[in-house]
Amino acid sequence: MTDLYLGTSGYSYKDWEGIFYPENIKSSDYLVFYGKYFNSVEINFSYYAVPNPYLFSALSAKVDNDFLFSVKAHSSMTHQRNANEKIYSDFLKALEPLAISNKMGPVLFQFPYSFHFSVENLSYLLKLRKIFKDFDAVFEFRNSQWVRDEVFYFLKENNAGFANVDEPSLSGLMPGSDYLTNDTFYLRFHGRNSEKWWNHEKAYERYDYMYSEPELNSWVPKIKKAVLSAKKSFIYFNNHYKAKAVSSANILLKLIKT
Predict the structure, then answer these.
(1) Nearest CA to 74 among 100, 101, 93?
(2) Residue 199 sits in a domain of what CATH number?
(3) Which DSSP string do the residues of 170-195 spell out, in sequence order?
(4) What's the rounded mean pLDDT across residues 31-55?
């Protein structure tokens, strides 16, 4: 499965030391170590601050040529939805080193639960797709209102990807799915911590969850089918607390290979 890219959402976590990363490893060596085990990573620091091209150029040099970076869009594009031309321009410029080195995966636009389906919001998605016309764009919705035929039609017509998710079975959240709206299959595992999803003191508590082998095994037929149908498939684990994302990803990889 050479077109399957598997990894975690983020890689720079201090609490992974002594579990996945060696103790006392330099943070600058995280990605080098990570790249020995996974062929892709979903960059999430780009959600909090618009990165610069030099950073992505440096990260690109730390991994093999077959490694791909998916990059989460800045919060001003998805949550505040007030990004100006400079933010868009700077963000696009930051991606250039990854594109030039052929290590660029999709740009992920993760919208909040409060982002409801509407004609106005569909128009906003179209705006983003046009701005990022030279990149593979994937949209993640947190509100189940977006599970409807007109949305899938819109994504297909505009060559945009749909981010499938595995998350708690709570009212209003997105159900588990394996939709494919363009040549890219995208799947994110957020964990199934129902108790802490809405009620948590610290953000990481929502993603404090370890997948069981049976839970992941139920995804294997869907993933194998998707890999055959898509040109590229990306799977990321976001249950990052205490490196549970790494452990979960390794279990899934083993199951896929059997």
Answers:
(1) 93
(2) 3.20.20.410
(3) -TTSPPP----SSSEEEEEE----HH
(4) 97
